[in-house]
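Margin note: ligand = S-adenosylmethionine.
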Amino acid sequence: MDKVNAGVLKAKAGLRQFKDTQANVDYSSRSQEYGKHVKIYKEVALQVKTRNLFGKLSPDCIALDIACGEGDSATCFKEFEEKDGTVVAVKAPLVKRVEYFDNNQDMVRKGAERGQIEDEHVKFGDVKDGLDYPNSSFDYVMSRFFVHDLNPDQKSFFAYDARRILKPGGKFQVVEMIAGDRETQDFVSHQHAMKTKTTYRECWVPTEDEYVALFRAMGFTDIRTDRHFSYVDTMQWLLEKQITEERFNELNELFRQAIKNRPAVRDYFNLRESGKGSILVYYPLLLICGTKPEK
Ligand SMILES: C[S@@+](CC[C@H](N)C(=O)[O-])C[C@H]1O[C@@H](n2cnc3c(N)ncnc32)[C@H](O)[C@@H]1O
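Resulting structure:
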């Protein structure tokens, strides 16, 4: 755990305030063009990798998706159809039941409206307060694109709690962006902390070694990993209203400085100008799955 803490403390030290900048550009006409990107949330290749890392799914099993959002991550437990690389329809579950946990009712409602989440299988709560399920409830527990929001102690608490609610022999999988080394860790933790509409949030992006250490420290065995990439154009964040125009400019400037002055960061995230005033970023993703020992 020392390694995890040390890495994340370094990342925390990297959180710095950047000056706000203004821009007077009308981006509205670009929405259609950027809307064509296949979102990582709905990408078939990632779903298939997630499913494969769990191993052969059993129809008797019960799965839980923590920080489920609209339920896209848990489509790995269901059959789906794809169109142009995107999951378009979710059909029969490959497990007995999928349950969902999140703290945001709006996100979950959207998922229910899309037919992905069944209301009777949802619990609302904050992961930081503990998962309100009895011991040994699930065969599979997963969480995608959430754990970076937790600080080191919260990550440990979360992984320990996930292990508690798993049955012996059950599997826990996290899908997350990862850092390569201290420099990329400092950069991505800082950059992601800035990616909000309001004040900076907390963000702690471990390396693969740190994730493996965390899984081991929390008592998981048979730890297996896979990799994927999340491809992003910073314009998407603006058009999806994830960030303000001021923050868009701030983030682009941060990336431009890295392209110019930080070759390790530039290469790790394959940073490039889009040629349309935004930046293209490839986030390396880690899929990590561990088993709760039988005894
Ligand atoms: C980026 S979304 C990922 C959604 C989904 N896992 C996916 O991959 O499509 C992050 C989700 O984490 C949820 N979340 C954030 N903080 C949480 C917390 N403390 N407890 C429970 N859920 C949380 C948010 O509401 C949101 O639905």
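The first helix runs from residue 2 to 13.
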